[in-house]
Amino acid sequence: MPRIQTYKDRPVVLLTNDDGPPCASSPNIFSFCKLLQSRLGWDVRVVIPDCQKSWVGKAYAISDVITASYFYPLEPEGLTGEITATARPLKDGETMEWILLSGTPATCTNIALHNLYPGEIDLVVSGPNHGRNSSTAFALSSGTLGAALAGALSTPLPGPSTGESSLHLDHIPCIAVSYGVVTRPVTSRVLDLATDAAADVCEKLFNDWGWDEDHEKGRHLVQVYSVNIPLVEGDLEVGTRKTAWTNMWRNSYGRLFKDTTLSKANYDPGDNSNQNKPASASTNQPQNTNIPPGDSTTSTAGPGALPTPTPTLPSSPSIGADKEAGQLKFHFAPDMKPLLFPPIESLPVGSDAWAFAKGYISVTPMRAQFACPIEGSYGFGKDENQGKAAGSLWD
């Protein structure tokens, strides 16, 4: 098909994520945003969580009051910039205004589409996530995918800014982008190549969006593309880069939590002793001098593509003492090795995990729904050979 329909000559794109503002656990969004603007000429609106919110899936915290603040990132990496309670004109040296919300990634998408920019957004891009989201175990947990699915489930209304009917009657087209760390340290060269590849994939999808054949809805546009980019320099060079259409590897995880005496887990998927970091931690966060601490309570936990290190426990009280006092506490500490490094011969050819293991960029079309059995798979075990179909009544 031709490129996605747009309200204006210049596409208006919502960029969101689950890693929050630029920092060690969110090192890619600023450079990616700039490339979407400079190379593709897109009008990018950034609405992201005010802190890292991995592994929350497509959650909405319906009892929370969501607060917004405005962030004005500064060059060269967006690691600093003023945060204000209300919007203001750009100052010298500022080129963008980002909106930070105290909600989940899915909340950011829905509020952006319906409250902040109604009737304006042509495409939602979520990411780039700092960590892969290939396979069902990661994808169904991912806030990055959750933000994209929230867009796919949103039917935008005509907005006061245009007064026109929505061009996207069924859903907003959405892309989720994830960078999969393979080895550390992750060099600036690798990140530059990954960002170049991500922009290239987004541009190609935007200009030639695919179709989905659905027995219920018929032929309609693909709702979501999940893009996974392995951070391997040799595989990302322009002359050797390969991209594959894939399906999603169906896998599962085991235990995700361990006993702890910590009052709060502080593990960050981008915070690894082997990862390159800025020299000064004080320059690693946006400068927020005007906003009181937010009410966000989501733990900064998630797979950074290497197994989670065990947090340092305080010397007292011991875990046993807590248990004797009747206080059980657990922290997120999964063993991701089976998911991150499965034997390649165990991976179905054509799956996103297989492509990742081969060093290919994977592009997986998705529907915003729980997968249903194919026709003929309904019924009890004794009905296996009778080909029950959806709509069949119980005997």
TrEMBL record:
<dbReference type="InterPro" id="IPR036523">
    <property type="entry name" value="SurE-like_sf"/>
</dbReference>
<feature type="domain" description="Survival protein SurE-like phosphatase/nucleotidase">
    <location>
        <begin position="13"/>
        <end position="253"/>
    </location>
</feature>
<feature type="region of interest" description="Disordered">
    <location>
        <begin position="264"/>
        <end position="321"/>
    </location>
</feature>
<protein>
    <submittedName>
        <fullName>5'/3'-nucleotidase SurE</fullName>
    </submittedName>
</protein>
<dbReference type="Pfam" id="PF01975">
    <property type="entry name" value="SurE"/>
</dbReference>
<dbReference type="InterPro" id="IPR027746">
    <property type="entry name" value="TTL"/>
</dbReference>
<dbReference type="InterPro" id="IPR002828">
    <property type="entry name" value="SurE-like_Pase/nucleotidase"/>
</dbReference>
<feature type="compositionally biased region" description="Polar residues">
    <location>
        <begin position="271"/>
        <end position="291"/>
    </location>
</feature>
